[in-house]
Design a protein that fits this description.
The protein contains eight helices and twelve strands. With about 260 residues, the chain is an alpha+beta fold. The chain has two domains: about 60 residues, Beta Barrel (OB fold (Dihydrolipoamide Acetyltransferase, E2P)); about 180 residues, 3-Layer(aba) Sandwich (SMI1/KNR4-like), CATH 3.40.1580. A seven-stranded antiparallel sheet has the order 11-10-9-8-7-6-12. Strands 1-2-3-5-4 form a five-stranded mixed beta barrel. Helix 1 runs parallel beside helix 3 and helix 1 packs parallel to helix 5.
Length: about 260
């Protein structure tokens, strides 16, 4: 059964002037409108029977389900896949400030993941589950500012590694570790592993313990990590005792930075 925002490898089974029928590996049928195929917008070849492509579910309620093979739709779906259930479980405050992402990304020298941008636009900076501080760009407090923390953490890591502390396994020349959150009370920092040539939505999440050298690897995305913490489904060793530290109400609550630190 297909679900909205899911990605699938599909094969084209039939072609018509209005679009193409496709089938997933699990045997689910879907339809890709011709305007949702790259050939509508670029010189790419038109869909043909037997073609294989990656597509995302736009509307699973229709028969057949509507899918898209456009890269922009895939990125949007990735940003919604975990943020949508997260906002249902942990309602945003409704007063997050807008962000001009162009200057932020220019200063960082990278394009930020779409799910992170959506989180900031819905929540702003603040505290999830009384535990995880989401950094946001433009925050007047440097402790919670994404750009400021990016520079500060890069210096801290360089100093630690120069002093002989082990780098995380698999870190290659040219990779960057960019912080996006930290854990209240423990000093654990959550990073994206930014690797050249890798799409932002494919950056793994790394947790560096605050009082030690250990690293914990998690799959993309940051919204997935937050959803697992809030929903109580996280596999992180560092959150195994969260139920002893926060109440069920606190676990599904977001506190904006302004309400915590004041004016």
């Amino acid at each position: 059964m297909l679900v909205d925002h899911e990605e699938h490898e599909v094969v084209v089974t039939a072609v018509a002037p209005v679009g193409a029928m496709v089938r997933t590996a699990a045997g689910d049928e879907g339809f890709v409108d011709r305007a949702k195929h790259p050939s509508w917008w670029s010189p790419a070849p038109r869909a043909a029977v037997g073609d294989r492509m990656r597509a995302v579910v736009l509307d699973a309620s229709r028969t057949p389900a509507r899918l898209s093979a456009l890269a922009d739709d895939v990125r949007i779906a990735r940003s919604l896949r975990h943020t949508t259930p997260l906002t249902r479980l942990c309602p945003p405050p409704g007063d997050a400030a807008s962000v001009e992402w162009g200057p932020v990304e220019e200063s960082l020298g990278l394009t930020l993941p779409a799910d992170y941008r959506r989180l900031v636009e819905r929540y702003g900076g603040g505290l999830f589950a009384d535990t995880v501080w989401l950094l946001s760009p433009g925050c007047p407090d440097p402790l919670y500012d994404l750009v400021g923390q990016c520079a500060e953490r890069a210096e801290d890591l360089a100093d630690l590694w120069d002093a002989g502390e082990d780098r995380p396994d698999g870190l290659r020349d040219g990779d960057r570790l960019v912080p996006w959150a930290y854990v209240e009370g423990s000093g654990h920092v959550l990073y994206w592993l930014v690797r050249p040539g890798t799409e932002p939505e494919e950056w793994p999440v790394l947790l560096n313990e605050g009082r030690g050298p250990l690293w914990e690897f998690h799959p993309p995305l940051c919204s997935r990590f937050l959803l697992d913490v809030v929903a109580g489904t996280t596999t992180s060793y560092y959150f195994t005792d969260l139920d002893e530290l926060v109440t069920p109400a606190e676990r599904t609550r977001f506190l904006p930075l302004a309400r915590i630190t004041g004016p």
